[in-house]
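#structure-requests
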Amino acid sequence: MLDIYVMGKRYQVPEGLTILTALEYCGYRLVRGCGCRAGFCGACATIYRTKGNSQLKFDLACQKVVEPDMYLTQLPFFPAPKTLYDVEDLEATGDEILRLFPDIVKCFG
């Protein structure tokens, strides 16, 4: 078992868990910031540092395996632009999707 600290509170988790699964192991119910769980969407961006090292590190919680004495802070949720539309008025075309969600071309998934 490893000691990790989430927002200053100490928890013990099994070795080998990702940060995301370690948070769930600690009892956190993740409803935001957990995205695809495969490293594509970037929704689970996490800031962490380790004991004795003041350098802040950044990683995806779904990919990074916990380390002993890891101090974690989740980045706060920030809203994405919300597109408003009426489903009845949509055409099933790629151009329509790009018009409504122009940032989709930046998605790796």
